[in-house]
Amino acid sequence: MTKSISANGFTLKKDQSDLINKKLQRIDYADDLIIDLILRVKEDKKFFFDITVNFRWGANAHVASDDFDFAAALNKVMDVLDQKVKKEKDKIQEKK
């Protein structure tokens, strides 16, 4: 899986970058199913997280969340992303 992390309107601090990488480990179980993951963070009074995941079989998932707290916004978006990835993985396993 190729990960691309970018920030708009601010510079990611080391601890924020480490937190993102730690949270992305939650979907390591699907590492072989995902081609690439594009994570964008924007700060404009709130933190806006936008993640697009492209799967090996051509499907993609897009999730977004926002919050005034960086960690809270990241947790929200990771909860939704984890559910979407599990759902896609289950769909593919059913077809086999």
Explain this structure to me?
With 96 residues, this protein is an alpha+beta fold. It has two helices and four strands; from the N terminus they run βαβββα. It has helices at residues 14-24, 70-95; strands at residues 2-8, 34-44, 46-55, 60-67. Strands 1-2-3-4 form a four-stranded mixed β-sheet, covered by helices on one side. Helix 1 (14-24) packs parallel to helix 2 (70-95). The radius of gyration is 14 Å and the shape is elongated. The two termini are 22 Å apart.
How widely separated are the two ends?
A: 22 Å
Element-level helix/strand string? EHEEEH
Mean pLDDT: 94
Class of secondary structure makeup? alpha+beta
List the strand order in the largest sheet.
Answer: 1-2-3-4
Radius of gyration (CA) equals 14 Å
Number of strands: 4
Helix content: 25-40%
Work out the strand percent: 35-45%
Shape: elongated
Question: Helical region count?
Answer: 2
Query: Low-confidence runs (pLDDT<50, min 5 residues)?
Result: none
Largest sheet: 4 strands, mixed
